Amino acid sequence: MSSDTAADPTALGEPAAVPRGPVTSASYSITVRLTADGDPASIGRIATAVGEAGGAVTAIDVVDSRPDGLTVDVTCSAADAAHSEEMVTALGAVPGVAVRKVSDRTFLLHLGGKLEVASKVPLKTRDDLSMAYTPGVARVCLALAEHPEDVRRLTIKGNTVAVVTDGSAVLGLGDLGPGAALPVMEGKAALFKRFADIDAWPICLDTQDVDEIVRTVELIAPGFGGINLEDIAAPRCFEIEARLRERLDVPVFHDDQHGTAIVALAALRNALRVVDKRLADVRIVVAGAGAAGTAIVHLLLAAGAGQVLVWDREGILSPDDERLSPAKADLARRTNPAGVRGELPDALAGADVFIGVSAGNVLPVEALAAMAERAVVFPMANPTPEVDPVRARQHAAVVASGRSDLPNQINNVLAFPGVFRGLLDARATEISTGMLLAAADALAAIVRDDQLNANYIIPSVFDPAVTQAVAAAVADAARAEPGATATVTDRTSFVG
Fold it and tell me: What positions does the domain Malic enzyme N-terminal occupy (predicted)?
C-alpha cells in the first residue's frame, strides 16, 4: 500500500523505537560468496552464524571445491537492510571463513529493468512483413480513419493501460521524483500482465504541474484503453483525476485511491463477519487524509458506514478547523459534523475499527487497548505500518496490514488488475462508485464461510478466482450504467 500524506509522528509525541519484526523477508535477501577452509564442520558453522544473527538460510550452493577448502554461495533472508549487514558481519567472524562478495538479490532482479516488448505476430517472412507493416498496415490505417471506433479492436489500445506518475508520492517514501519512481511503475506493469494479461507501460513525467500532467496524459491517451494514475501526491492527485475523467473517453483510475479503497472495504466486510458486527453500526477511525484515506472514506460511506472519524497531522479533522485544506475540510464535513477534536488515541477510544494509511509508527500499541471489544485493526502504511501488526494482535480480534510476510495482506494487486480487465472487456469509457463497490463485493465474496477466520479475511493475490471475479463484477456494472461503455458497431469484415 502507498501513502501520500505522511502524518507527523511528533503529533503523538516521539514514539518509541519499534523492535525488529520476527519475520525475515525475501525483499531483504542476500547471497554471500564465502571461501571456507577444509574443515567439514565449516558449513555447519556458517548456517549457525546466520541463525544466531536472526536470519534464515534458504540455500547453500557449492561454487568450487578443492582439497584445501570450498567456495560457497550462502543465500539468506533478513528483516531489513541493517539486519543483512549484521548477517554479513556474523559470517565474516566464523573461523576459517572469508567473505568475498555480497549480492543483494532484490537489486539483481532489477538490473536492466523488469519489462520488455515482444511481438504477438511472427515476423519471419516477406509475407509477414507485408501484412504486419508496409504495405498491408496502410489498409488498416485507412479503415481506422474511417471508423475510429474500431481502434480498440484492431490495435493494442483495447488491452493497454498507461501507468502514469509524477514521482511525488512513491510508496510511503515521499517525493522521490520520476526516475526513482520508475521501478515501482515497471512492477505495476508487470503485475498487470501477470494477473490480468493486460499490456501496461510506465509513464514517468518530469513535472508536478497539474496543467502539464493533465495535458500530457490527454495527448498520449489515444494509444491506451485506460489510465492508471500512480503515486501522485494529494491534493494534486484529486484535481488531476477529476480533470482527466472529464476530458477523456477512457476510464481513469488512481490506484492509490480506488485500488486501496476496494481492497480495504472487501477486507473490512469480511473482518466484520468474523467479529459479528455490521458496517452501519461500527465506529471507524481512518488515519491519513491523503489520496488513500480520502478514497477509503468515500467508499465506506457509499457502502453504508454510519460513523467515521478521520485523523491526520492536524488531529481529528473537524469542519471548524481553519487550518484544513479544501480537501480535508470536505472530509471533515462529511465525517465529523459534531466537530469532535483530539488526537489519534482520542479518536480510538471506543472505536470498533482502525484503518491506517498515514505513516509508520504514529500510534503506540497501547492505544489500541481503548478500542471496543473484538476490534478490527488495519495498519496499512508502507513500508512501515502505523503500529506493529504483530503486537496489535494483543488488543484486536482481527489484524490486517500491507505486509506480505503476515496474514491478511491488503494489497492493491487484489483489485487493479481485475478492475481494468473488466473495464477493458466492457469497453468502458469511465469508472463509477458503483463499479468500485461491485469490485469490493466480488473480492469479499471469494472468501467462503467455511474459509473465513481471523487470519483469512482476504484471498491470496495468487488465487486465480480474484481477477476473474472482480473483472466480471466491474464489467457487468459498467454495462449496466447508461453511457459508461463505448458503442461499437459489430462488423465481421474489415475491408479497406
Answer: 112-245
